[in-house]
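ok so i was messing around last nite and threw this chain in just to see what happens. nothing serious, just curious
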Amino acid sequence: MINPDNHIFHQLISNKDFVLWVNQPNEDRDIFWQNWSYSNAFAQDQVLKAREFIQRLQFREDLLSTEELDGMLGKILEREACYLPVAAERPVRIGSWAQKQWLRVAAILLLSLLIGASLERINPTFDTDQVVLQAPLKKVDNPRGIKSSFLLPDGTKVHLNYESSLTFPPQFEHGERKVSLVGEAFFDVVHSDSVPFVVLAEGVAVQVLGTSFNVSSSNYQTQVSLVKGKVLVNFLDQHTGLDDQMLTPGNQIHLDRRLGKYTVTPFQTDQITGWKDGIMMFEDAGMADFFERLEKWYGVNIQIFGRPAKPWKINGRYENEMLEDILLGLKFVYNIEYQLNGKNVWIKIND
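result:
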């Protein structure tokens, strides 16, 4: 019996258009695959796994030795001979380093194509041309350093954080309100007794009737934090065996998607949702974490010279602060020098 989840995964990684979308995204492919994911919410987790699998393949050649690559090339060429007509061409001598490198690259590409062709023969029913497209979805995409607020078609207010995107239809129809989130957002949902509001994030589907909550996902971690109302969290990966969980205000679910486990804990509202009001909070933050947060918050590139004599533990609350004001405060506490030049920041640690 074929497992439906694995079936979808294999179909996706062997679909040429899906692979192109992962490796070479453009507007047309984005629209198509966002529509497909939106229409097939049950397969979202498999879509994420397929994307990660294809992205990891890009580094596969770094894991193979020279002998393994040369051997792979020979096997591929032998297999290709079964499908290709014999050509009356002079054999190529593999002599120079450049020729060998090119043939190794060709081996990787040929192997990928053969794997794709093989999987397509196993699963011949998957055809993107047969998918019925809905009306083009809308997408709000925030780069580093940019946060935004906007209303959805039903009047729900969304605060979207930096390095995050939200995809949604131009109108909510067919008795559902469903959106797809990458990154972090805060939702203030308009109440409706008959039409649930569903947020699809990495590994979870959050279902509500009307409430305020925060959803964040990155690095295999997904977090749902409820401010008011009530939400039902559905875990999309069926293999974990996790039961759906109802959240109460002031509590959050933290899901580790690699381990397939979650915890439910209380949280401080400002600590989790303060970002939407321009508030950054730090609790015993180390130097690397602190500067990484500043980079994303202000959309800058920070270069650090030197190392502190002892670990930093930064505790603080910054509300709509200018970057230079924060750095000026650090200068007196941690003995640093800094220089700002547009989007570039240089920091010298004198300890």
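not much to say yet. The domain at 138-272 is CATH 2.60.120.1440 (Jelly Rolls).
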